[in-house]
Amino acid sequence: MIPTTINDDESGGLVVPCPISTNFRCEVQHTLTCNECKTLSVHNEFYHDLSLNFPDSMSEAAHFIEDLFENFFEDEPIDHRCEECGSTSATLSHR
Fold it and tell me: Were both Cys, which of 17, 55, 65, 85 would link to 60 (CB 3.0–4.6 Å)?
């Protein structure tokens, strides 16, 4: 794990923000929603990188970074057993 601060010596002197955490850390909220009873389960996760999927061929329309982010944060149907109603159909969203 990358620290959020850096100490300049062992005695705990000067504490400065970690430049990696300051510039590249982001928090993503994952929400799992049961498609039957609409029960929500929310989990927050910190990232220092995101895996963006590029098109398979360069012949596809030009992709801008916004399109890659939209694809990453797109809702996805998943198989998940709901603890409330027993349904196995859910949607995972990322914000």
Answer: 55
User: Residue 94: helix, strand or coil by DSSP?
Assistant: strand
Residues of the chain with pLDDT under 50: none
Number of Cα atoms under 13 Å in the Cβ half of residue 14: 4
pLDDT of residue 39: 96
Strands 5-7 and 15-17: antiparallel
Contacts of 25 (CB under 8 A, 6+ apart): 2, 4, 46, 47, 48
pLDDT at residue 29, as a whole number? 95
Amino acid 92: pLDDT: 96
